[in-house]
Amino acid sequence: MTSDFETQLRAVSLRVTRPRLAVLAALRDHPHVDTDTVIALVRTDQPTVSHQAVYDVLRALTEAGLVRRIQPAGATARYECRVGDNHHHVVCRSCGTIADVDCAVGHAPCLTASDDHGFNVDEAEVVYWGTCPGCATDRTSQ
Ligand SMILES: [Zn+2]
Ligand SMILES: [Zn+2]
To answer: Fewer CB near the last or first residue (10 Å), C or N of the chain?
Structure first.
C-alpha cells in the first residue's frame, strides 16, 4: 500500500518522503482529523517529526490535490485523502464528528443556482448539519 502513496506523490511531482507517506497513511486510516491528530498519528511511527514538518506536508499535499482540507463553520480544519469525487459531509453540531456523504449527482456543482448572476459556477459547497447517533442517544438517556 505504501507503493500506492509513492505513485500518488510521484504523479504530482512531489518527492517521496517518510513524513509524506506517514501523513497519507494516517488520513487513509483516520479521515477528517485535525492537524493535531495528524501529528499524533504520524508520531506513533516517527516520534521525532516536528509540528512544522507535518504542517508543511499537509500544505504541500493539499496544494497538490492529494489531500482535501475541509473546515465546517466554527470547527478547526480537518483533512482527508478522499479527493476528486465531490463528496459532502455531515457534521454533528454537538461533538463535531464528521462523516462522508456521497454526492447524489457525482460532480460539481451538484446544485443548480436559481440565479447565477452570470457567474461561471463550478462548485456548490454542501454541509449537512445535525446530531450524530452517539449524541442523540446521550440526549435521550439523560
Ligand atoms: Zn455527536
Ligand atoms: Zn470526507
So the answer is: C
